[in-house]
Amino acid sequence: MASHPNRRILLATRPDGRARQSDFELVETAIPAPKEGEVLLRNTLISMDPYQRNLMGNGSSELPPMELGTPMSGPTVAIVEESHNPDFAKGDYVQTWTGWQDYAISDGSDLRTLDPGMAPLSTALGVLGHTGLTAWVGMTKYLDDMPGGTFVVSAAAGSVGSMVAQMAKLRDHRVVGIAGGARKIAYLRDEIGVDAAVDYKADDFEAQLARALPDGVDRFFDNVGDYMFEAVMPHFNLNAQAVICGTIAGYSDTGLPDRRDHLPRLLNLILYRFIQVRGFSILDHLDSYPAFLEEVAPWVTAGRIKYREEFIEDFERIPETFLTLFEGGNTGKLIARVG
Amino acid sequence: MASHPNRRILLATRPDGRARQSDFELVETAIPAPKEGEVLLRNTLISMDPYQRNLMGNGSSELPPMELGTPMSGPTVAIVEESHNPDFAKGDYVQTWTGWQDYAISDGSDLRTLDPGMAPLSTALGVLGHTGLTAWVGMTKYLDDMPGGTFVVSAAAGSVGSMVAQMAKLRDHRVVGIAGGARKIAYLRDEIGVDAAVDYKADDFEAQLARALPDGVDRFFDNVGDYMFEAVMPHFNLNAQAVICGTIAGYSDTGLPDRRDHLPRLLNLILYRFIQVRGFSILDHLDSYPAFLEEVAPWVTAGRIKYREEFIEDFERIPETFLTLFEGGNTGKLIARVG
Where does the Alcohol dehydrogenase-like C-terminal domain start and stop, copy by copy (chains A, B) (predicted)? Predict the structure, then answer.
């Protein structure tokens, strides 16, 4: 067993607004000992994701936040170091949710065994993990397939958005991707292969959008909400369908934007154009992993779905790297290789 | 064949805003003659409905308006006066869409034969017609059944709303009805039998609403939109579902209400509470009439679903009676008995 101590990055304080370095605390503890039925896990890959901000509390999530003083919660890939559970052997790789620490104990119920021969293990945190499952479930369970229809994706250069855009292409939709800045637009055009890319940071965003949507919008996979949804919604065709998979701001009942109220207009569109707008919980669909992997893993290994990962090698730098997610600059899934 | 001429009330002008008496013109023409395969229909019951305003044009509907100079479009019950179509016999009663006139020709494709022994013929225009089908389709096809859950209906004293409220009770939901004014609230409590009735015209509307929703909202059948939806939406539970079946205002892209923007808040609720909001077209569900009647007609004939009708006997008064719909005073389905 490794001799170095068990490093853990704890949630020290709940952020008020944007998270800061001082919200985290690095501590070193003993390596825990598994009991009968349990396994000892050592994290090898640790994911950093925007939604983790919501787990810290004082955010817009409706779910209870994680406890203060516990390791920052999040998905990981771990290796089984010691097993007292017949379902797992020493050396097995698993995808789990042990967060920002070296070692953890599990009774096995929250582990998904990985096949290192199928795809790089890091994909279990992104394109073949929760990110990919989120994209796939949103598309296949909450948007009726409509080959030939116009499919719009916002934050299309992001980890969920780029996957949705590529799956929509593979399903023969006409795909319009929205992202911010010339670099992301070039990525959408040259790498992701969208039919049209629209820059929301451009002065003529709405005109660009209108030009990209000569036949309106049939499906909208929205990772932004807010002004983005309001820009797209006038283009909804009859029977259009939208999924809300992310929003950029956590408005309370009182903290509403100081601009004219767009909600009655949306309700009219829903009424007269027979539209549906839906959210979903990925936790209701974890049993879809096999069906998801069966369809998507071959696309990933064949290079038909591209993805980007950025690695850091230094456990201590996880908090500061996580914080860069909220500056909009990074272009791939952020993963720490540890141990 | 009847000897009096064929009276027709034509759409003379498209209203700008609220419809007026001068938008209509009464003319008298010859009775048309059916050809081979056709039937001559004489209207006996003519419906007056709020959505007919949208058919007149310059409204919020996305559908093309009816043509100027043609009889005002709308649902009717007619008797077959002369038949050259083997599917219909003289004396048959049918539900059709011949609008505000005495006589019309049909090739039979738009006729639904009525059984006068099943229920009063007038119900084919309301509780057992499009009104009832709209309520039933919205409930059964667009809201998952959830016995024991809290079901909210707005405009609950109206023709669609009162039916939805009663069907929700028959499906063992806890039903909260919203309506305006003491008379409608008493009707909801005493006749419709809701579990709680909330008066949106009261000064303490939002407090009343909160008291009526101690366990939040699971299903919302909204006939109002606008401020009504905005008042109900903070109470949405996880996995709440809403159907938009009516809105009170036809907001254009530019004519948005001058108050803070509630749409980003709704998108956050959709994201974090896994909500769905949907519209639907009753025209996609006309083949559900048999299933609808099979379930609902016995409830109506047994008195388990109550409904209200108001009759006028004078064809010429149809326009002025129609216009009263927009003053909010009437309390039942408006029907003209003619011929």
Answer: 160-292
What residue of A is the nearest CA neighbor of B279?
A274
**Tokens coding A338:** 């540890």
Beta carbons of A279 and B273 less than 8 Å apart = yes
CB contact (8 A) between residue A271 and residue B234: no
**Domain of A75?**
6-121+307-337
In a domain, A292, yes or no: no
Same domain as B67, residue B201: no
Q: Please calculate the CA angle B79-B81-B87 and round it to the nearest 5 degrees.
A: 80
Tokens 């003659």, residue located: B33
Q: Whole-angstrom Cα distance, residue A198 to residue A179?
A: 6
Pair A87, A146 in one domain: no
Whichever domain contains B162, its CATH number is 3.40.50.720
Tokens of B20: 């007026």
Contact A276 B273 (CB under 8 A): no
- Whether the pLDDT of residue A183 is over 70: the answer is yes
The mean pLDDT of A112-116, rounded to a whole number, is 93
Does one domain contain both B202 and B331?
Answer: no
**B327 versus A225: which is more confidently predicted?**
A225
pLDDT at A264 over 90: yes
**In a shared domain, residues B150 and B262:** yes
Kindly list the residues from chain B whose CB atom is less than 8 angstroms away from the CB atom of residue A238.
Answer: 62
* Domain identity same for B69 and B152: no
Q: State the pLDDT confidence band at B1, using cuts at 50, 70 and 90.
A: very low
Residues B148 and B276 in one domain: yes
Q: Do A267 and B226 touch (CB under 8 A)?
A: yes
- Specify if B97 maps to a domain: yes
Are B77 and B122 in contact by the 8 Å Cβ rule? The answer is yes
**CATH of residue A26:** 3.90.180.10
**For A270, nearest residue in chain B (alpha carbons):** B279
Task: Please tell me the distance in Å from A158's CA to the nearest CA on chain B.
Answer: 18
- Domains in chain A: how many in total? 2
Share of residues in chain A with pLDDT > 90 (%) = 85
Q: Which DSSP state fits B67?
A: P
Residue A39 lies in a domain: yes
Q: Are residues B67 and B96 in the same domain?
A: yes
**Which of A226, A235, A263, A285 to probe the B interface (max B CBs under 10 A)?**
A263
Interval B192-212: pLDDT, tens: 999 999 999 999 999 999 999
Dihedral pair phi/psi, residue A38, rounded to 5°:
-110, 165
Residues 6+ apart with CB under 8 A from A237: A150, A215, A216, A217, A218, A273
CA distance A224 to A208: 18
Range with the lowest mean pLDDT among A80-84, A327-331, B131-135, B221-225? A327-331
pLDDT band at A330 (very low <50, low <70, confident <90, very high): low
Contact B7, B99 (CB under 8 A): no
Q: What is the DSSP letter of A84?
A: -
- Tell whether A299 is covered by a domain: no
CA distance B251 to B226: 10
From the number of C-beta atoms within 10 Å of its C-beta (0-12, 13-18, 19+), residue A67 rates as exposed
Burial label for A127, CB within 10 Å (0-12, 13-18, 19+), is buried
